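Budget justification note: compute hours in this period were largely spent on complex prediction jobs such as the one shown. Inputs:
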Amino acid sequence: MDNDILRRGKPTCHVEFGEAMALLVGDALQSLAFQTLSMRMPGIGAERQLAMIHLLALASGSHGMAGGQALDMAAVGQQPTVNELEFIHIHKTGALIRSSILLGAHCGNASAEELEQLGHYANRAGLLFQIVDDILDAECNTATLGKTAGKDAAQNKPTYASLLGKVGADSLVADLRGEAHETLAPFDSRALRLHELTDFIVDRNF
Amino acid sequence: MDNDILRRGKPTCHVEFGEAMALLVGDALQSLAFQTLSMRMPGIGAERQLAMIHLLALASGSHGMAGGQALDMAAVGQQPTVNELEFIHIHKTGALIRSSILLGAHCGNASAEELEQLGHYANRAGLLFQIVDDILDAECNTATLGKTAGKDAAQNKPTYASLLGKVGADSLVADLRGEAHETLAPFDSRALRLHELTDFIVDRNF
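Corresponding output:
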């Protein structure tokens, strides 16, 4: 959703091909996700596939990413509470992170109980991602981050870093990281990649 | 996709709420379609529901509406042949008209043979819609049409009216209308609404 992300020196789609074409590509990619999820998958029941599609649709729309982005736009120039900021991010970035994790679990034919437990993990992973993103934006230089650093502050956009301060944000990251690892405990070595993902989200510097 | 459609005096979404919010609403509505189609429907098998979702996804994405719109943008200022123009419209507007008709047939648990026959009908209905749209754009005044008439010509946009002339376009409409009614013949009175839809597409003046 950012206008100025530059990765490996390549301009974003809308810079290279124009806004209209970039929007069409976005529409086409959203369709492609549902096209892919609705192909019959060996070893996964049709009922479960429908549940997976429903999960992704809810996470993408007004109850997920699109709704969270709308709230985020409305919050520019405001001073939301930490709870309000959390509500925005649970929807804006958290919902798709959560659905990515749960879709993977569905592919392993996870039980309802396992899905619920992974949902708790995913909520923490999503928040961790956002808080670390805010801290990096406030701290890093533009070259390391791959996007314009300090942009949030320049746009007067509320962030965890601005609401909690550096110390408070770091402390919240430490707490959430511990909780995230704990929620994965019942899965033993099957959750190895998710433990690694948790550490990657926190330790990345870009 | 038009920027200047005015219906009943109400401004379009992007005029009323800004482009960013209008784009988010579009994203959310696309998700909502898949959210709705992935809810379990009484009397329809899960396998068929997956086929319905796949149909809509294909019709919306790069092989359907989004791809057709991209081709349409690329054709502005060009002089495509009638076949090229048909290819654009089969994707840009035809694909979603076709999927609407086939999704309805799926809800009635139509057979593969019935779906194929209705696909032939739907292709004609989609083209009829577009040709009549072109004729109306060239002919009507803005008040009747509900959007800015003559816009296609002003944008140097290829249309059936400009490629075939008024007489040629009218003749093509008459042929396609007859073919459309014929393809519905095997369905007897069950296709009453589709016969009516065909006449409505041709006889409308807005």
